Amino acid sequence: MSIKIQNGNLDVTTTDGISQSSIRTSPGEVEIGVGDNYNAYEITLGLSSLEILVPKIDITANNINLRGLPTYADNAAAILGGLSNNDVYKTSSGELRIVYVL
């Protein structure tokens, strides 16, 4: 475990060599994170904002960013590509769609 206090900020980190957990505070903001060598998850709480970061999805008070969203021509192609009912994908023109299985 490491604890660092610098310029009014507090940083606490624990790790087992593969996974890591952290809490960082600064004036008006708290960030909580967990992760491993493949994925990182963070929640940031600010005085007027909330940001949640999980692999491939960023959610903030003002926008949603779907990183790594797969691209398919249509529902049938998405299913053939391995997506399941209610999975989200985009078309080559950027149109968001949700897989549906009848």
Structure description:
The protein is mainly beta. It is 6% helix and 49% strand. The protein has one helix at 75-80, and strands spanning 2-6, 9-15, 20-26, 29-35, 40-46, 50-54, 57-59, 64-66, 88-90, 96-98. Strands 1-2-3-4-5-6-7-8 form an eight-stranded antiparallel beta sheet, with no helix packed on it. 2% of the residues are buried.
Number of β-strand runs: 10
Number of helices: 1
Overall pLDDT: 81
End-to-end separation in angstroms reads 51 Å
Largest beta sheet, briefly? 8 strands, antiparallel
The main sheet orders its strands as 1-2-3-4-5-6-7-8
- What's the order of the H and E elements? EEEEEEEEHEE
Note the beta-strand portion: over 45%
Estimated radius of gyration: 19 Å
Shape: elongated
Q: What's the structural domain tally?
A: 2
Uncertain spans: none
State the helical fraction: under 10%
Look at the helices and sheets and give the structural class: mainly beta
